Amino acid sequence: MKKLIIFALGMSAIIGGCATQNHGSAPASAAAGIPFVEFGNIFTWQADGEKGIYIESRQRQWYYATFIMPCRNLPFEQERIGFRTTPTLPLDKFDSIVVDGEPCYFQTFDKVAGPPGAAPAKPANAPPA
């Protein structure tokens, strides 16, 4: 009986220790999103071929969304796309765009510095050059 109690205490200590270990995982960060899309909070966008899209908010913050599957018509559509989001919620990785009537669902949605080769955005209160 004494061995059983010691074994049970030892196992609970091992299991408890495993549950509290941090296995090197990164801390959870806030999800990226563009609020108030339904009120015109998207300033511009730039296609990244069929694999993703760069989106700039009116606050001059860039975001990059990748698609679950290739968005076939995006590289050919230079003027019009639709942003499909849940009303009152920000545009985020759970949303999509519509290109020529076909939805392109996001897989990821992250804040980025901007498209490759883009000049960094100037703050709104920056003096003229």
Question: Can you offer a commentary on this structure?
Answer:
It is a single chain. With 129 residues, this protein is of the alpha+beta class. The chain has a domain at 37-112. Helix content is 15%, strand content 29%. It is built from one helix and six strands. It has one helix at 2-20, and strands at 42-48, 52-57, 62-67, 82-84, 96-99, 102-112. A six-stranded antiparallel sheet has the order 1-2-3-6-5-4, with no helix packed on it. A hairpin with a 3-residue loop joins strand 1 (42-48) and strand 2.
Task: Report the β-strand fraction as a percent range.
Answer: 25-35%
Helix run count: 1
**What does the average pLDDT come to?**
78
Summarize the helix and strand pattern as letters: HEEEEEE
Please give the alpha-carbon distance between the first and last residues: 83 Å
Number of strands: 6
Q: Whole-number radius of gyration?
A: 23 Å
- Give the biggest sheet: 6 strands, antiparallel
Question: Helix share of residues?
Answer: 10-25%
- Inertia-based shape: globular
Properties at a glance:
alpha+beta; 15% helix
SSE blueprint and pairings:
Elements lengths: L1 H19 L21 E7 L3 E6 L4 E6 L14 E3 L11 E4 L2 E11 L17
Antiparallel strand pairs: 1-2, 2-3, 3-6, 4-5, 5-6
Brief synopsis:
With 129 residues, this protein is an alpha+beta fold.
